[in-house]
Specification:
54% of the residues lie in helices and 6% in strands. It has 442 residues and is mostly helical. The chain has two domains: 50-137 and 193-276, no CATH class; 279-441, Glycosyltransferase (Alpha/alpha barrel), CATH 1.50.10.10.
């Protein structure tokens, strides 16, 4: 195997003596990339049964015993659950039911919220579970996960009516507002998994520690808490206990156990906290802004609406340039930096639109329209449909990528389609319907 200096010498020699050959190879490579990247847009919208087909495939992939899709490690696939809930809402509106879709949705939402991946004392979800049954998490908490999952549980409550999911949504939003909110209104990116040099130390308990903390509440209540949270003397994680609910879906705490939860939470707050990723990312804040605004409107929570306004003000003040273009990230010691991607602009279109709906204040809708104009100008692929991930204003790449598929987060094109359609319905012909149509066709 040649050494790296030998490789560099060979590259230099080829560039000097065989430049035409290399140029031709480069053109062939970029042409091949173009053929694979540029899909032709359809002449029609997807057929009505597209969603039903996707729901059927999700049913085939579902773990009927433990919930979720696929094996360990298991990630909370909010986008798949939203597809199921939209399908169920459509069926319900037509006076129909889909028992299989309801079963898949209920099993997964209950399993995730009952396992150790959910923080049963402080609310919020960890990034993923290392096992198939959602017990042992990777303890890192991400803003985008909690923004998306709070919305999913809120939608689950609205569609299927289970109040335990409203509790999960509320506790998750309260976690973000308590632990991930910057004093100026932005939402920070994540909490680390580690504290005191070990993963999960902040979150785990021994049975004796619970007894000691709850001693003033009486021994019977301490033992009831130990049973409620599935705590054993030997533990379930490196000799300690990750709190969880052994009875799946039984999440609504009796009044006396709520007193225990509050006592344990207050004690845990005295521990050394995990590290904090203090970046404010535009895309993730747009997701949280959309969720918080929708939840405030749905539940009549003026405090949440005030937090959404503060977030919108912070983002527009610190991450939006005078020409309307959004930047990607902000930190207190570095300021705003890095040109935003399509996903940043699309998430802000959706978040600002929903804040305008929730507040009734035209300034947010105006800002959404301005952001939509920038999204269309910088990122829309007029020839082939859809949105490029990068704008046409920075240094050009060999090929401008397109973010098409939802993963842990919705893709830029999904966000753009939903945000532009929603904004267009609100402001009419001030936003052309063609871009979201082109996005769906693509």
């Amino acid at each position: 195997m040649p050494s790296f200096p030998q490789v560099l010498d060979a590259v230099t020699e080829a560039w000097t003596t065989r430049r035409d050959e290399l140029d031709g190879l480069g053109h062939r490579l970029t042409s091949s990339m173009a053929r694979h990247a540029d899909l032709s847009p359809s002449e029609a919208l997807p057929p009505a049964d597209t969603l039903a087909t996707a729901v059927a495939q999700l049913g085939e992939q579902h773990d009927d015993e433990w919930g979720g899709f696929g094996g360990a490690p298991k990630f909370p696939q909010a986008m798949s659950l939203e597809a199921l809930l939209r399908h169920l809402a459509t069926r319900h509106a037509a006076g129909q039911h889909d028992l299989r879709a309801a079963e898949v949705t209920t099993t997964t939402l209950d399993a995730m919220a009952s396992g150790g991946m959910y923080d049963h004392l402080g609310g919020g979800f960890a990034r993923y579970s290392v096992d198939p049954w959602w017990l042992v998490p990777h303890f890192e908490k991400m803003l985008y996960d909690n923004a998306l999952l709070a919305r999913t549980y809120l939608h689950g409550w609205r569609v299927l009516g289970h109040r335990r999911w409203l509790q999960v949504a509320t506790e998750t939003l309260n976690y973000v507002l308590r632990d991930l909110r910057h004093p100026d209104g932005g939402f920070l990116s994540a909490e680390d998994a580690d504290s005191e040099g070990a993963e999960g130390t902040f979150y785990v308990w021994s049975a004796d520690e619970i007894r000691a903390v709850c001693s003033g509440l009486g021994p019977d209540l301490a033992e009831a808490a130990i049973a409620w949270y599935g705590v054993t003397e030997t533990g379930n994680f490196e000799g300690a206990n990750i709190l969880h609910r052994p009875v799946r879906g039984d999440l609504e705490r009796p009044e006396d156990l709520e007193r225990v939860r509050a006592r344990l939470f207050a004690h845990r707050e005295q521990r050394i906290r995990p590290g904090l990723d203090d970046k404010v990312l535009t895309e993730w804040n747009g997701l949280m802004l959309a969720t918080l605004s929708e939840a405030a409107l749905t539940l009549g929570r003026e405090d949440w609406l005030d937090a959404a306004r503060a977030n919108g003000d912070f983002l527009c003040r610190t991450l939006r340039r005078d020409d309307g273009r959004w930047l990607r990230a902000w930190q207190a010691d570095a300021g705003a930096h890095t040109l935003g991607f399509a996903a940043d602009h699309a998430a802000m279109v959706d978040g600002l639109t929903r804040l305008g709906e929730a507040s009734g204040e035209a300034r947010w809708t105006e800002m959404a329209v301005s952001t939509a104009d920038v999204l269309l100008d910088l990122f829309l692929d007029v020839e082939h449909g859809g949105f490029h991930s990068t704008g046409h204003d920075p240094e050009m790449l060999v090929r401008r990528p397109k973010d098409l598929l939802d993963n842990a987060q919705p893709s830029a094109n999904s966000l753009a389609a939903v945000g532009l359609l929603r904004l267009g319905a609100l402001v009419g012909d001030r936003v052309t319907p063609k871009p979201p149509r082109a996005c769906c066709d693509y």
